[in-house]
Structure formats: structure tokens, C-alpha cells
Amino acid sequence: MPSVSGLLEQRELAARRRVEELREEADRVQAELVVAEQDWKEWLVARSRVDEVLALGGDGAAAPDATEVVPDTGPQPETPREAAKPKSVVPVWRVGLTWSALSVDYQRILRVLSDRGRLGQGPLTCQEMAVAFGIEAVPAKVETLRSKAKRLVARGWLAGSAPGRFTLMPGLAGPGGES
């Protein structure tokens, strides 16, 4: 008859193996995700370039970039050279990590949510974010914002208070590290 201790060791070993297998799978999926996101961004840039060339028309004057996701909203608390590169991966939030670890587009999302929190206003939808940024709330642009907001939620920067509504994660420091 097997001992209880021996049975527990067998179960522990099986559980540990399962955890290791899942970690390996998660690492593989994360690597595939990074490659897929890069590929997607390259296609967005290609489409943007083609739209830009086609918009030049015959007069040689460049039309405004219609694919810009988040237009400039005025003075920025952190200068762009302090921000992460636009195509950089969103890091997981941890104590001491400042907004400069994020690209400018992500910082703008955090800034508008920070301002709402400071004013005592509630969560924000992606449609409301689009309006706050001064961009047309068309599905493609709203979905781009939603994707970025969900990525910030997944990395611990934002909280999804209700489906489709976003707020800053409680305790997250403001721009430049102030609380």
C-alpha cells in the first residue's frame, strides 16, 4: 500500500510539471504576440504611407495624416525624448516606474484619465477618450484606443471598472512620478 507522503509527492511533482509546461507555453505565445504586433504595426505604417502619397495629389501639398491615433493635446508634462519609443512594448507597472516608460500615445491616455480622477469624474469609455483627444469617434480609431487601453489594463497601468470603462489603477503615480 502506497504511503500518503509518497502520493502527495507524486501529485506535487505532476502539478509542478504542469506549471512548467504552462509557463513555456505562455512564453511561446508572448513571443508570437510580439512578432504579430510588430507585423500589424508595420502594415499600419505602410497603409499610412500610401494614404499620405495618395493625398498629395497634383498640388504637392501634404494633407494631414488621417491615421494619427492621438493628436497633440498641448503642453506635455514629459517631453517626447523622455518617452519610450512609439513601437516599444508596454512594460508591466511596478513601484517606481514612471510614465516615461510608455510611448507618448499611452501617456496621453493616462493623462486624460489622471485629469478625470483629479476632477472627481468617473471612468472613461474609448468613445469619450476619442472626443477628449479631438479625433473622430469612428470605429477604427475607437478600437485602436480600446486596444491600447486594454493593453494598459493587462500591464497594470489602468483598471477596467466596468466593461469598456477605464480609470487609472489606484495608487499609480502621476506624470513625472508625482502622486
Average pLDDT reading: 79
Rg, Cα atoms, Å: 22 Å
Between the first and last Cα atoms, what is the distance in angstroms? 61 Å
Number of helices: 4
Strand order of the largest sheet: 1-3-2
Report the major sheet: 3 strands, antiparallel
Low-confidence stretches: 62-81
Instruction: Report helical residue fraction.
Output: 40-55%
Describe the structure.
The protein is mainly α and 179 residues long. Helix content is 51%, strand content 6%. The chain contains four helices and three strands; from the N terminus they run ααβααββ. The chain has helices at 4-56, 104-118, 126-133, 139-154, and strands at 124-125, 158-162, 165-168. The chain has a three-stranded antiparallel β-sheet. The longest helix is centred in the first third of the chain and has 53 residues, at 4-56. The protein is extended, with a radius of gyration of 22 Å. Mean pLDDT is 79; it is low at 62-81.
